[in-house]
Queue: 2 jobs
Job 1
Amino acid sequence: MTNQTDPTGDVRLTGIAKTYGAFTAVHPLDLTVPQGSFFALLGASGCGKTTTLRMIAGLEEPSSGTVSLGGQDVTALPPYKRPVNTVFQSYALFPHLDIFENVAFGLRRRGLRSVKKQVEEMLDLVQLGEQARKKPHQLSGGQQQRVAVARALINHPKVLLLDEPLGALDLKLRRQMQLELKRIQTEVGITFIHVTHDQEEAMTMADTVAVMNAGRVEQLGSPADLYENPRTTFVANFLGTSNFIEAEVDSKTGGEIVLKAGGGKLVLPEARCSAPAATGGKVLVGVRPEKISLTHADDAGEIPEGRNRITGKIADSSFIGVSTQYVVDSPVCSDFEVYAQNIDRDPRLVPGAEVVLHWNPAHTFGLDAAQDAD
Ligand code: ATP
């Protein structure tokens, strides 16, 4: 049953929800994952990402809502009848079978006899052609995970679901496998939906990331968009560090909002403000630490016009190699964190020094100050 308006391999969740007794693990959720994309469900432990993935796989029955794949409603179909396959953190390889037979398993179960060409192609894809006759215990963790991916891809699913597949690997291997999975996805061109709690992993691999919090998708977007334009403090904090300043809307002109903060003014592009921003209303102004420059107060006259600026006093500084990280106390925001990429470190920038923090208004984002109040 193909629907003419949705002829592709999109994954579409419509009002999908999951409750366990009185507890709601996933609130009604509408989400479309475009065909061929690398999509990440990102969030802290317990936010509902695995439950969402399992509902797509058919391993968990939704309490309400529908799942469709390529325009076909698959909500009532058992997992094995859905054109999806899942890779779990525990690779679940068959220990007594060699790598070739592990990958061939799905084909043999379907009664296919001449599997050699397909298995070899798949082992080449995951760069394990040389390891075909080894047993799983003779491979590294990363290699075993690649066997699990090959085994999941051999039946040509439309969608590959990956549930924290790199969770058991050490950091270095994890980083390598992130790039490797990205390469495999680009090569096979099918949709990958990847569950992770690691923001760097999601940002490295995915075209689109859904940030989940307490059973809801809090924001959806490209990694760059989520980082540059977070719409909630949760997203701003989950994807990196942010500084926040409480400000009041003074006026709006030509696509810009002018805000009062402490004794000074800050400018925020209207397009980067997710708060209602009526005159006199409160806005939480955010700026990423690495966007901020730090100038000694004696040199404040050298700061170009048009930059947002606030004054403060250095509370702490630590040299971390490529840059120096400063903590600055300011009347508008205490413990303002600044990562300044000062190559020629100004020797006057030491704890106690009076400084001006300044940045391009284009790097400012505005959040609803009331959102976390309830
Ligand atoms: P993690 O990264 O720790 O796996 P997650 O974001 O994937 O977390 P889920 O596994 O989807 O979270 O679980 C979401 C919530 O639903 C959690 O609070 C969990 O305790 C609860 N939950 C999951 N399965 C069940 C179940 N069978 N019965 C009751 N509660 C459950």
Job 2
Amino acid sequence: RGFLQILGRTTLITMFAGAGAFYYVTQLDRNPGTQLPFDPEKKTLVVLGSGWGTTSLLKTLDTTDYNVVVISPKNFFLFTPLLPSVAVGTLNPRSIIQPTRYITRHKTRQVSVIEAEATDVDPINKTVTFVDNSDIKGSVSSTTISYDYLVYGVGAEVQTFNIPGVQKHACFMKELGDAERMQREFMDCELRKGTPSEGVETAAFPGQDSKEIDRLLHMVVVGGGPTGVELSGELHDFLEDDLKSWYPELAGKIRITLVEALPSVLPMFSKQLISYTESQFKESKIEIMTKTMVKEVKERSVVLQMPDKSIVEVPCGMVVWAAGNKGRKITQDLMAKLPQDQTNRRGIAVDDFMQMKGANGIFAIGDCTATSYAPTAQVASQQGAYLARVLHQIARRDALQDRLSALEQVHAALPPVVAGDVADAAATAEAEAKKVEEEKEELKRQLAKFKPRPFHYSHQGTLAYIGSDKAIADLPFMNGNFASGGVATYLFWRSAYLSTLFSLRNRTLVATDWLKVKLFGRDVSRE
Ligand code: FAD
Ligand code: NAI
């Protein structure tokens, strides 16, 4: 009994200490201190975007080096890997976003965060024009500012290949709004913009035509990359874990089809993991159609080009388009201003130091660039952190250069030593000139040392959720690759993403959402 009492007391003390520490950390986060004001002597660094690349840059950046201005149409960072979980209601949309000010308010010098969309970058005059894209407009809605350095990290948009009907009828999985809309309207099985709602409830309506039920409950995911595969897995979980219980009469009729133009899904994973995913999907009754290309999306069907080139129209209730990325218009416009150097159709060409080729003072990171790396969060965040370190070196180099220019002016202004000067005056002038010369030489020596290391990407592995509490992982291991799939990998996937989330707040919210869904399931009520 005494032992149990001591154990009880120890547990209680540990719990209180843990809760106290947790509270302390959250309060530190909520109450940022006073920041240094902008310094007119410092150069202006404009950062476009608040995504993976630029958020990672802001976290590492030494803001005492610059006056920093962040411009982004979203005033938050979005943790994209968990976006498909929001789409089916596993996670609350707010759990995977982090306001940019939560990061910038903790920096030493103040950072100006402007919610606006950059519409033009002038690489010659070094200016950025941006517009207020919110619904509520103030007295000013468009402004142009100058920059000394620009970090360009606006990401990419969804690639539709101009396929007819995609913009109008399909749903995307790129922004928080896409997932929120899908979550809200999932029960409608009718994500098509501007069309009347119909879906699970419509399918369940007494006397509904059986062909119509089959159509309404057929969900087509286009693109067998990681986005399409993860979304199919999440959709399957929702149907299996929740809809089956609440709509038993429809359970067997719900179908998911994943359409991929290439011979296999997930080309970036090892053959072993591709086969594993395919067999898991087969077990989960998710149909994979490879070598099949979507040619058109209609209001109530998709038109497919089959492997034998025949054209088939398949009725469906919902189409989710996850067919890859393409450059934003502002990126294409910027590249068009530098036609000699920017010829890569995939995106902005940069050198090994992330400098945009042909532009002075512009650095580009993440999905908007065309590099040898895949357009992933992992690459963008490493580039962001790398660039923050380079910018610190550049600030030091610029300070040395400024000092050197000042000394050169002093040197030029020194009176020449002329024959006939009083010996003392001549000696003083000579000593002064020597001092200036020595300092100049020292500055030149230091400047010569300024050689930032090129960007080096360190691949930490690739993970993907495939549904039914299973995930796949290709991890670099002992100079080789370790491929694994299954429930243990799924637990690893969860803990990896939980620890990658940028803040304690996000980690707590996501963990709580997971627990809520485990206990109570997802919500199937319609607004
Ligand atoms: P983004 O993160 O897209 O950020 C771009 C920023 O620019 C945004 O803040 C945007 O609002 C802003 N912006 C847009 N237009 C303008 C403008 N005109 N002016 C100013 N700002 C602008 N990668 C992984 O490595 N692992 C994963 O598990 C993973 N899962 C993913 C899941 C999904 C559903 C998706 C869609 C992507 C996933 N990715 C994953 C890919 C990853 O999200 C991207 O590679 C990453 O977001 C690229 O970072 P970025 O900073 O270049 O762009
Ligand atoms: P993706 O480019 O990887 O895949 C898109 C797929 O759609 C391609 O396989 C393409 O062949 C197919 N496709 C294109 N047009 C088609 C058509 N008309 N009909 C049928 N299929 C068509 O795009 P995704 O999945 O959005 O990923 C984008 C980037 O984000 C990638 O670099 C990816 O690695 C990364 N990402 C990583 C994740 C992870 O690591 N877990 C998760 C999600 C994205």
